[in-house]
């Protein structure tokens, strides 16, 4: 019995990682307009204004605060956690 367990353990360790048939996630570079169109809920109407304000940089859009967006004339809710 112990020999059989050792054989299975050795086969498992020497076989390497199991193959995965699931699709691997990938990263795609997305611009501000594409991101806002994906969000929906009416923000796509302000996509051009936001892209002009943040220069098409996704990181700057994510760092933009609610008050800055309101100064640009974009309606947004200030949700308290």
Automatic annotation (TrEMBL):
Residues annotated as domain Small ribosomal subunit protein mS41 SAM: 32-78
Coiled-coil blocks: none
InterPro entries, sorted: SAM_Ribosomal_mS41
Domain of life: Eukaryota
Pfam family, one: SAM_Ribosomal_mS41
PANTHER family tied to this protein: IGR MOTIF PROTEIN
Protein name: Small ribosomal subunit protein mS41 SAM domain-containing protein
Naturally occurring in which organism (per UniProt): Zea mays
